[in-house]
Amino acid sequence: MFNIEKYISSGIIESYCLNATTPEEKAELERNCKEYPEVRQELAAAQAGLIAYASQFEQEAPPGVAAKILDRIEELKLETASLSQPALRASEFIGISARSDLEKWQKLTACLAPPAHFGDIHSHELFDDGQRQLVVMWVKEEVPEEAHDDLYEKVFVLEGSCTCTVGGKEIDLSPGGFLEVPLYTDHSLRVTSEQPLKLIVTRVKLKEAA
User: Fold this and answer.
1) For each successive 10 residues of the chain (210 residues), what is the average pLDDT?
2) Paired residues of 178 in beta bridges
3) Which domain holds residue 12?
4) What is the rounded CA–CA span in Å between residue 61 and residue 199?
5) Which of 8, 89, 127, 156 sits CB 3.0–4.6 Å from 96 for a disulfide?
6) In which region does residue 39 sit, left (phi positive, over 0), alpha (psi from -120 to 50) or beta (all else)?
7) In this structure, what CATH number is given to the domain that contains residue 124?
């Protein structure tokens, strides 16, 4: 039987973070991250600690390194995610980015569908802990203009296409398209496909977004 505590205390996670593992150890850790949430959480904590430690020094890490690490953590979450019955909700928050895997998101949400008859917008909440919200949304025509001063909002398109107007600038999105909405900025969405738009929406309250 796999001893999670013994594995975590073995030092393998720290070695992985320092790129000091063999290819076999690296593959084993990544498999265990997929299978055991405790290992995945410990890896995330170790990586966050390493980033915080490195930030104390004047020399900055290459641009995008921290973002790539965080994206990889979210990717591991997505690979092992499932929607629990009967509410069809996720057990943890999964972030999105321009590097999110379209096929994996489509597979995870394939079991979800809007009602046969709904208004312009229908939402299905996957996760909400009071600070972070993860939603699947279907839109027939448009999302009215709004602006946020207390949360960060991101969208990732799964099906259909749309034109987003952000601060007066139009941005076209199709499946795999990603948009991060700036704070205090007017934004709206207009569907351009014949089929309803299906997208992932994340909202993170300002004090937790950093």
Assistant:
1) 85 82 87 89 84 64 68 83 89 93 96 93 96 97 94 97 96 97 94 97 76
2) 156
3) 4-80
4) 33
5) 156
6) alpha
7) 2.60.120.10
List the helix and strand counts (H, then E) for the chain.
7, 9
Judge if 125 and 187 occupy the same domain: yes
Phi, psi of 134, deg, nearest 5: -125, 125
Portion of the chain with pLDDT greater than 90, in percent: 55
Total number of domains constituting the chain: 2
SS3 category, 103? helix
- Phi first, then psi: give them for residue 131, nearest 5 degrees: -120, -35
Contacts of 51 (CB under 8 A, 6+ apart): 61, 66, 69
C-alpha 53: how far from chain center: 24
Neighbours of 82 (CB within 10 A): 10
Of 148, 154, 151, the closest CA to residue 185 belongs to 148
